[in-house]
Amino acid sequence: MNHPAKQKWSADDIPGQVGRVAVVTGANTGLGFEIANALAARRASVVLAVRNVGKGNEAAARIAAGTPGADVTVQRLDLSSLESVRAAAGELRDAHPRIDLLINNAGVMYTPKTTTVDGYELQFATNHLGHFALTGLLLPHMLSVPGSRVVTVSSISHKQRADIDFDDLHAQRSYDRVAAYGRSKLANLLFTYELQGRLSASGVGTVAAASHPGVADSELSRNAAAWMRPLLAAAGPFIRQSAAMGALPTLRAATDPEVVGGQYYGPSGFGGFKGHPTVVRSSAQSHDTALRRRLWTVSQELTGVAFPLSPPLS
Q: In this protein, which residues make up the domain named Ketoreductase (predicted)?
């Protein structure tokens, strides 16, 4: 339960981040930019891990303009390519002896059927597999860091037609863009809960948590079906919130001293659409132990990345 004084948690509640290194994926726009901007304002050393370095440099300049002296760097990262993930992780490890925060924020939504260079379905590859691999490759630089956290951004869509079909993970037989997105967001939660189980079993202090932004203004929904756009526009004032508000659940999961491993943060309002961040519930399916362990095993096989952790005790 949240402390009463924290019911309307805001960016003003973020503790000082001096000396902390935060890697934020997809940080050049939308939610990722707001997350990075808020952390930089609290004096974290922030790495914008982005696919487009030019846009990343523009975002870094905007952050520096708002926070003179901000420590912001840009790292090229294409989550849809495991080669790019490995290269970025290597460069990040070389540049930073310690990493305090890894915020797995980047994502794609409702994309047309696309196969990545590795042969995987784009939404599942980008939203889940890329972040799974990045986390595993960076974790050795986090495990000995006091207060280190991995925060993975999911979505209320993890309940929407979401199913992990291990016989057709990459939608080779059939593809539904909404179902594929829901699958990838369910995978984000299954990953978080299994990761926390393994961190606990290994006796380390690193925490894994998850978040969702509700319905926030961002570029993520640009691939929404044509019939959905007028509905989103009409419902906007009632269910949508700014990117800055949408970033708060992730920021709370990343910085609030009261966060416990395995928690899931989202907006407090009706339906989880908007509001101040609080602990929320995810679907029963996201807590399926057998499902999360099978996904973990398959994800290791597909990415070739093994984590330096013991399996959960139960």
A: 20-150
